[in-house]
Amino acid sequence: MLQAGLVVVGRRVHRPVLGLRIGPVTHAVRHHAAAPVALVPNG
């Protein structure tokens, strides 16, 4: 079994009025990954 030291997930940059908004896939990765997750803005 492979184990990751870090999971990197790209996200689109939006300018939401209230807080950070992420999509359903990123949300699921954050909650289910056994390793730390880095959210990296694209562009």
UniProtKB/TrEMBL annotation:
Residues 3-41 form the UspA domain. It comes from the Bacteria. It holds the Pfam family Usp. This is UspA domain-containing protein.
